[in-house]
Amino acid sequence: MTALVEIRDLLVHRAGRPVLEIERLNIERGRVLALVGPNGAGKSTLLLVLARLIKPERGAIILNGQSATELGDRVYRRRIGLVMQDPLLLNMSVYANIAIGLRYRCVSGSETARLVKAWSIRLGIEHLQTRNAATLSGGEAQRVALARVFVLRPELLLLDEPFSGLDKKARTELLLDLKALLPTTGVTTLFSTHDDREVRVLADTKIELVDGKIQPESSV
Fold first, then answer.
1. Scanning 89, 123, 143, 212, which has its CA 20 to 30 A from the CA of 166?
2. Which domain holds residue 100?
3. Is residue 106 included in any domain, yes or no?
4. What is the pLDDT of residues 71-94, one digit of tens each?
5. 20 part of a folded domain
6. How many domains is the chain partitioned into structurally?
7. Strands ordered across the beta sheet of 17-28
8. What is the reported pTM?
9. Domain for residue 216, yes or no?
């Protein structure tokens, strides 16, 4: 497989100290990778750097053979999907939440409706379209957040502990649904987790971070 993302000589400081130091990391196209490590290891920082929401002191990020710097933040971010632990939904209908990114991209109303319906069905939330997002359960809200990203067809999907805020039933159902769904999309996925079961069920391999550094036993 070829690398979708290449990271070279990456350094990130926070509060005057290094929190992420990655000499080299390749993320192969089409893989589902788990990002593991203790609290404070740099997992969320790495995801935010890959989303271009944190600028590193130095280093290169190459997406599909193109430098993130040369692409520019706007173009780069359009190729990335990010879902946080908190779904961060807007106070509007489920349909409007899923459709909002498509509307910013000036996608036609008919195509927006088609994509929203298709992904709502795939994520089991079609019956929620007219509900206000504020009334959803944690599991429902996270499914809406995922649909909002998937309709934009990202090349790289970043998930920051997407299951940790859910109850046991919702966590298990979403985990198994994503296990079935992700291989059909072909989207390269990197998700952070503290849960070994999530790694076993969902990931092809894992990357372990400790004190901001990738551990030698990580398999990438």
1. 212
2. 89-153
3. yes
4. 999 999 999 999 999 999 999 999
5. no
6. 1
7. 17-28, 3-14, 58-63, 66-67
8. 0.94
9. no
- Rounded to whole angstroms, the Cα distance separating 88 from 155 reads 21
Residues pairing with 63 in the sheet: 5, 66
Please say whether the beta carbons of 43 and 206 come within 8 A: no
Asked if 213 contacts 43 with a C-beta cutoff of 8 angstroms, the reply is: no
Give the count of beta carbons closer than 10 Å to the beta carbon of residue 90. 12
Q: Which amino acid is located at 59 in the chain? A: G
Task: Report yes or no on 109 lying in a domain.
Answer: yes
Question: Which two three-digit tokens encode residue 56?
Answer: 């590193």
Amino acid at 74: R
Q: DSSP alpha helices (H): ranges in the chain?
A: 43-50, 68-71, 73-77, 94-104, 109-122, 138-150, 168-185, 196-202
* Residues shown for the chain: 220
Residue written as tokens 């919702």?
Answer: 170
d(CA 101, CA 107): 9
pLDDT per position as a tens digit, 108-135 = 999 999 999 999 999 999 999 999 999 9
